[in-house]
Amino acid sequence: MFLAQSSPFLKPELSVSKMMLAVTILMIPGILTATYVFGYGVLVNIFLAIIFALTFEALILYLRKRPIGVYLKDKSALLTAVIIGVALPPLAPWWLTFIGLFFAIVIAKQLYGGLGYNTFNPAMIAYAILLISFPAEMTTYWQTPAMLASQFEGQTLGLLDTINFQLFGQLPAGMTIDALTSATPLDIVRTSVLNGSATIDEIHAEGSAFGLFGGIGTEWVNLAFLAGGLFMMRKGLIRWHIPVSLLATLGFLSLLFGSFELDSNPSPLFHLFSGATMLGAFFIATDPVTAPTTPRGRIIYGAGIGALIYIIRTWGGYPDAIAFAVLLMNMCTPLLDYYTQPRVYGHKADERDEESS
Amino acid sequence: MSLSSTLHRLWSFPGGIKLDGNKSLSNHQAITTAQLAKQLIIPLSQHIGHPAEAIVSVGDKVLKGQVIGYANGPVSAPVHASGSGIVTAIEERLIPHPSGLSALCVIIDTDGYEKWIECTPLIGNSVGTSAGTNEASAQTLSSLSSAQINEQIANAGIVGLGGALYPSAAKLRTAKKMHTDTLIINAAECEPYITCDDVLMRRRPEEVILGILLIKKVVGAKKCLIGIEDNKPEAYQALLTAISGYEIPNTEAQIEVISVPARYPAGGEKQLIQVLTGREVPSQGLPMDIGIICHNVTTAVAIYHAVYRGEPLISRIVTITGGAIRQPQNMEVPLGTPIRDILNQAGLDEDKIEKIIMGGPMMGFSLPSIDTPVTKATNCILVSEKDELATPPPAMPCIRCARCSDSCPMSLLPQQMYWYAKARDLEKVQDYNIFDCIECGCCSYACPSNIPLVQYFRYAKTEIWDDERERNKANIARDRHEFRLERLEKAKAAKAEAARLRKEKLAKKKALDAEKAKNEENSSEIESSSSKNKSSDNTDLIQEAIARAKAKKAQQQSQKKNTDNLSAAQQKKIDEVNKRRQKRAGTEKLQP
Q1: Which of B389, B411, B416 is opposite residue A11, by nearest beta carbon?
Q2: Using one digit for the tens of pLDDT, what is the confidence trace for B157-194?
Q3: What are the domain boundaries of chain B?
Q4: Which residues of A are less than 8 Å from B455 in CB distance?
Q5: What would the CATH number be for the domain defined by B2-345?
Q6: Beta bridge partners of B87
Q7: Beta strand residue intervals within A153-210, DSSP E
Q8: Which range of residues forms the domain containing residue A242?
Q9: Closest alpha carbon to A134 in A83, A91, A101, A92
Q10: A79 lies in a domain?
Q11: Alpha-carbon distance B365 to B97, whole Å?
Q12: N or C: which end of chain A has fewer CB within 10 A?
């Protein structure tokens, strides 16, 4: 006569699809700022990434005999695509995005069982594979329109020029590939300090890496992602544990080591507001599938990522380290989940230890 | 009183969710009365424990309030006729239970006279008169003993009306025995839509307070905390006013009305205790283990009715609400009234019905049919229209977002339990403390993948119980088998022993005979075989003694005691008994 069903009957407050969409939308301030700083390439990257992601997702869902419509609508592929699009160099050639999305969607996500079953963050797998396989392409092409303008008497790359270059490798007359090759602030600081070619003060004076408080250009992008992230926290889309412990650890370590050797260590603010720090802290490390589920587990996880970022940035072989830090901590997730279970109501604090001993 | 209530320290429970109450639909109207149903369907089991046993039969005339089923065992409750009329059947009927099963019900065709049995209140005056009578009733209250009041509660068939349905008298008895010092009255009513407790407190606060004083008296509790969610300010105020209207000696009655933040499930027993006292009920334990007893506010009123009016529990207030009800309201309904009747009375819009739920939208269940009766458990009937409540969309994979564990008031890890429940790894599920789950539904509500988590947990729990039952059965069968083997073995051993003894005896006898013959033959060998002779002398002595004892026994058995002038039949019986005795004596001899 009428519908029988088991409790609860209230409409759920949220769906996976809404969650993914909300997170994607809250990346928009960061994306727009990045576009302003790095040019149209950011938008082209994201656009290409979304097309590749949805194509790969549909294709592999078909091969795995899963309902394509249902899973495309969950918008998780969309979010992965946008994150990769932002993370890639702004003038990256199209095939870099293509290969990245193939690894993210096909290998790291669907071959592990699809949404919810992947051990590693798909976007970061893509990034790490690209970084290792194509180090040159991944670390150059970070030229900003402002720098181009100063080189070519005000000439920059328009949207069509950008598309033309990224898809077909053709530059407007008068420009050369070399002109597009530029290192990021993090890269400049790292190589200078490693080579001993310049102290922090000298880099400051040169004005190629430091902005007002963070990395030149990237500080604004970071600020925009921070704003979006804080809004996500307010809306309850993510909890505070991971971003706060990540940023606190990174800030603390840079403060600690920075106070020993001022000459070779940039300030905590530089670490927090350059590279992909804020994007990583709020939008990447908080990926629910690959992060721990317990509050204490999340704090340790965030702190681990923060520490690894500092270690790799300072002593490692790569200028930025979000991808490696996240992937390394992904491995610890099951362990963290197991050992950080909260005390259940009515149980004594040390009950589990007694049980296991 | 109002001062102390604002000063009371509050604690918090983890998780929980903010819900839209939907309470204003039904909480501002006066309590209405249900029309008398033509036929009452009264289930004999409306409580936890043994079902009541029917003591009326078909064709009996019953009065309103008359016992029709008596409490069968210490954890049980009597059932009363909620209207006068004639018992027309005692049969299985569909009852409002999630199982959709039938149970034994007494069917009464009402006669419309509503003739009551004679009620015997323990305390004369009821509320609504002058302050003087209140004082008088308080004095009467102090002259009553705890056991007296509790007996009245037991006879009135009162059970936990908050949903637990545990016989109140049994609970109070245990609480008294365990020296429980804190009484917590659950007036939180945290489920959306339900307002029956709310209106009861608003409209009859004096009855609530007097009922609470009775419970306090029975238990011997030192203090009483009334926990009420802060979305019911009118009820809160009404209780405060009612308390200040009574001249309650401070030492005897410390009743505090405490407003707690509205967050589901603040009305869960364990959560309310945590919020009010900061203490936790031990896992698998009872509130009494930490000196607390919890009762629902509606139960308190039922107790008031039993003691001050002598009326058994034959009606309750039911919230009738939802989008498909034209006049949402709270109705006082005689138990056994078909749900269809009260829905029609409240203006059921048949075209709009989508779901019919008994209880709230978080923990209630879909009714199998509206031709089931209102029982002691029926606090709310929610009839939703389209799009008012969820139609379950297909579940998506778990994305481990942990919104479930963030919302769990028991700090469990639902996503882990779900994982293992799905894999039917029952041991692991128990490792994750599935039996601490109170099935409040927060996790299912919070899950963005629409996974019916609570359903998985219910499944796992029943599977575990099932397994346990099977295991117990197997254990009993194994024990029985082992016992049987042992018994057979013993019998075999006994037989062998008996045979051995017989053989030995025979051999001895033979040897003895042979020796005797030898002795007679050759007296010169006497000295050499003196030791043997000695032992045979001993056997003779023993045998003589046995013979003497036997003779004595026989004499005793043949002696007649008060058996002169017996009839032939009696004599025959006695002879039979004697024969049996002799026979037994014979078998006893066989088994040394």
Answers
A1: B389
A2: 999 998 889 999 999 999 999 989 999 999 999 999 99
A3: 2-345, 398-521
A4: 6
A5: 3.40.50.11540
A6: B108
A7: none
A8: 208-339
A9: A92
A10: yes
A11: 8
A12: C
